[in-house]
């Protein structure tokens, strides 16, 4: 299995717009590895991503990903599920399936 880290920036991207702190300034000027998007991992063989933060579209475009069949969510915080609802095709008629452990299903 081949994994690609799409982003590892934590709960917010770096640099943050309008911020001029000692972390954001170099990230803006020098780019990667200082500039980072939210947390997400691509499993290309399965057409899957683990976690879908708000910056997932930029991440997928950066890696030329045109098809995502599965989104696995590590935990239900907005920095990991920020765009899950909008990941469905616009013509989708069904809701995404939710599976997991018994404890996970109770939380949903």
Automatic annotation (TrEMBL):
> InterPro entries given for it?
RibonucZ/Hydroxyglut_hydro (IPR036866)
Q: Which domain of life is it from?
A: Archaea
Q: Where is the composition biased (Polar residues)?
A: 92-102
Q: Where is this region: Disordered?
A: 87-108
SUPFAM superfamilies documented for this protein: Metallo-hydrolase/oxidoreductase
Q: What protein name applies here?
A: Metallo-beta-lactamase domain-containing protein
């Amino acid at each position: 299995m081949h994994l690609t880290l799409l982003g590892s920036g934590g709960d917010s991207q770096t640099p943050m717009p309008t911020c001029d702190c000692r972390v954001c300034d170099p990230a803006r000027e020098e780019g990667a590895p200082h500039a980072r998007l939210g947390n997400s991992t691509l499993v290309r063989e399965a057409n899957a991503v683990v976690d879908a933060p708000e910056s997932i579209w930029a991440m997928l475009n950066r890696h030329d990903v045109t098809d995502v069949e599965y989104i696995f969510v590590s935990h239900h915080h907005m920095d990991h599920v920020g765009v899950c609802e909008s990941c469905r095709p616009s013509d989708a008629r069904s809701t995404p399936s939710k599976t997991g452990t018994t404890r996970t299903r109770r939380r949903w």
